[in-house]
């Protein structure tokens, strides 16, 4: 991934350097603006799903760590039911239906997207080991359908004997 490159070669490589780790330059001004405008939370898909879930009577926490030792935050958290909801973006998480591979800086993006998928898997495993349900959905899924499935999952995990 990041190797030490002499300072005089750094400008010729087409990369920026942050702590000696290669980071690609944006391939255009438009791409730079799009990447800088990318929201980490409150995306349109998240908002649609949250509104649909709220209409069904579900109450939740937003953008919260389900487990104290976990670095990743879930988009929605139901602590009593131990359900953590992740609304995964098609590009960032490698959707088999809509995910696409960038044509520029592929050396960087292939590795970045692979690491994202590995992190998702590790988070799922950590939550499962702690007795939680990692409820993952794609951003392209219908919000009402997701909310209905989510309602079943939450109620099924909080229902008494």
Distance between the termini: 51 Å
Going by CATH, the architecture of the largest domain would be 3-Layer(aba) Sandwich
Q: What is the rounded Rg?
A: 19 Å
Domains (count):
2
CATH homologous superfamily placement of the largest domain: VSR Endonuclease
Biggest sheet features: 4 strands, mixed
In the CATH hierarchy, what is the class of the largest domain? Alpha Beta
Please characterize this protein's 3D structure:
- The strands form two sheets. A four-stranded mixed sheet has the order 3-4-5-6, sandwiched between helices.
- The chain is an alpha+beta fold.
- It folds into two domains: 1-38, no CATH class; 39-158, VSR Endonuclease (Endonuclease, Chain A, 3-Layer(aba) Sandwich).
- Helix 3 (44-55) packs across helix 6 (143-158).
- Helix content is 43%, strand content 18%.
- The protein is globular, with a radius of gyration of 19 Å.
- The chain has helices spanning 7-10, 29-37, 44-55, 90-93, 106-129, 143-158; strands spanning 15-18, 21-24, 61-64, 74-78, 83-88, 133-138.
- The chain is built from six helices and six strands, in the order αββααβββααβα.
List keywords for this structure.
6 helices, 161 residues, globular, 2 domains, four-stranded mixed sheet, 43% helix, alpha+beta, 18% strand, 6 strands, disordered N terminus, Endonuclease, Chain A
Quick summary of this structure?
With 161 residues, this protein is of the alpha+beta class. The protein is built from 6 helices and 6 strands; from the N terminus they run αββααβββααβα.
